[in-house]
Structure formats: structure tokens, C-alpha cells
Amino acid sequence: MKNRQAIFGTLIGVLLTIPGPAFAHHAWHGYDMATVTSLKGTVTQFDWGNPHVWITFEMTDDKGNVEKWNAGGPSPSRMANTGWDKDTVKPGDQITAVGHRIKDGTYNLRLVKVILADGRELTCYGGQ
């Protein structure tokens, strides 16, 4: 009986440690999820790699200053399910990145979709 209780206690302890880090990673904590931001710019880098796809792009603000932005999406496999591949965007492409800006004021965006120069819209998450 004591052996069974020890195994059960250990199992519960292990299960309680898993959800915290997993939730923290996927919460996109710090992003303004109530506001959608659209930014037009030129791609400087497209990183099609795990765990998240990243697009780096530059845009010019109203005063003529160049801002360097990072826009992150889900994993490549998840984006592939919505029509993306490693060649969807490349440096020099004009895009409109649509997503949620981080609250700390830095130039980071959680991607929802990208509008390509030809007008095609590619979502980053299925069902949105």
C-alpha cells in the first residue's frame, strides 16, 4: 500500500511540473492581444525553422526613420498547413505583417497573417 501511494504521489508531482513551462512558452505573454497592428515593410530575413518561424523586416515610420521589426509565428509545420513554405517570402519582398505588437514598445510582432505584394493573404494559424 505504501509503495502504491509513493508511486501515485510521484506521478502527480511529475504531472504538476509539466503544464507550467509549456503554458508559459505558448502564452505569447506580453503581447497586446486586444489590438491588431498592420505594418508594411521589406523583408530582410525569413527564418523557416523550429520552434517558431520569424520574419525580420524594415519599415519607414512617418518621420522617415527606418525601424527594424521581428515578427514571429508558429512552427513551420503549422504554417505549412495554411499554405506557407520555406520560399513563401524572401529578402527584398514587400509585405504587410498583421499581428499583435508586444507591450514593451520594442519592434516585435506576433504574426496573425501576412499580405503579400500580389494581394494574397496567408494566415499563420488555422481557423483564423
Overview of the structural elements:
Helices cover 23% and strands 35% of the residues. It is α+β, with helices and mostly antiparallel strands. It has one domain (31-123): OB fold (Dihydrolipoamide Acetyltransferase, E2P) (Beta Barrel), CATH 2.40.50. A five-stranded mixed β-barrel has the order 1-2-3-5-4. β2 (54-60) and β3 (66-72) form a beta hairpin. The relative contact order is 0.19.
Major sheet summary line: 5 strands, mixed, barrel
Which strands sit side by side, in order, in the main sheet? Answer: 1-2-3-5-4
Q: Unreliable stretches, pLDDT < 50, 5 or more residues? A: 14-24
What is CATH's topology name? OB fold (Dihydrolipoamide Acetyltransferase, E2P)
Overall pLDDT level: 85
Helix content: 10-25%
CATH architecture field = Beta Barrel
Number of helices: 3
Going by CATH, the homologous superfamily would be Nucleic acid-binding proteins
Structural class: alpha+beta
Distance between the termini: 51 Å
Order of helix and strand elements from N to C terminus:
HHEEEHEEE
CATH hierarchy, class: Mainly Beta
Kindly give the count of domains: 1
Number of strands: 6
Which overall shape is indicated by the principal axes computed on the Cα atoms? Answer: globular
- Rounded to the nearest angstrom, the radius of gyration is 19 Å
Report the β-strand fraction as a percent range. 35-45%
